[in-house]
Design goal:
Layout lengths: L7 H11 L4 E7 L4 E6 H18 L7 E5 L4 H13 L2 E4 L8 E4 L4 H4 L5 E4 L17 E2 H4 L18 E5 L2 E4 H11 L11 E4 L6 H13 L3 E6 L6 H10 L4 E3 L1
Parallel strand pairs: 1-11, 3-4, 3-5, 4-8, 5-6, 6-7, 10-11, 10-12
Antiparallel strand pairs: 1-2, 8-9
Helix pairs in contact: 1-3, 2-3, 6-7
Amino acid sequence: MNATDRTPADLLRSALAADPARPLVTFYDDATGERVELSVATFANWVAKTANLLQDEASAQPGDRLALLLPAHWQTAVWLLACSSVGVVADVAGDPAHADFVVAGPGQFDAGLASHGDRYALSLAPLGRRFPAPPAGYTDYAVAVPSHGDRFTPYTPVDPEAPALIVAGAEYTGAEVVDRARADAPSLDLTGPGSRLLSALPYDTWEGLSAGLFSPLAVGGSVVLCRHLAQLGEDALAKRVESERVTSVRR
């Protein structure tokens, strides 16, 4: 990727310019049998729509805080990059009472009501299905996001040295996320384009976020993100590693 990239959103723009058709995030849920593969272009489209939702519908401003109450999931990755695009601080598993916005999945809807800002609910059902009726106090993300634009331009340029991410009590600027992701790459056996890391780590630690999104993105690689991997036997895992051309595994 470009040495001048200073935010996660910069990394995504460089990936889009380099090879939009290559896989970026492949997601498995071994509790449901779901498999979703997103190319760089498809992932970037979701990020742009979500960033436009944040900026135009929720009126988010750089420095606002968003409590991200979601597991490791392809839609969580989308929200992380959308926050970076707008300059919103993504507070992973953060306290909704101290957040300007909440994005929540099943099991977290009651907790998210502590925020008085806009709240978006995700079903996390296969294919990003909408709710039959959204949880009380929430907007259904799957209903709200499709109408937003496929390209995103921030009203205010994002400062790489401003806070961008909070996880496990630690705060990182956009530049620190990029620098740490690049520094982690060798220990994750990510050697550059073509590297493909299978991660079953949760997103509630830096290690999980780095392996499950940021480091593969930083080196031009890709991630096979697995939820409920413990339900998959070792033989089936070996077949997945082979079929997905995985070069490194973290679980």
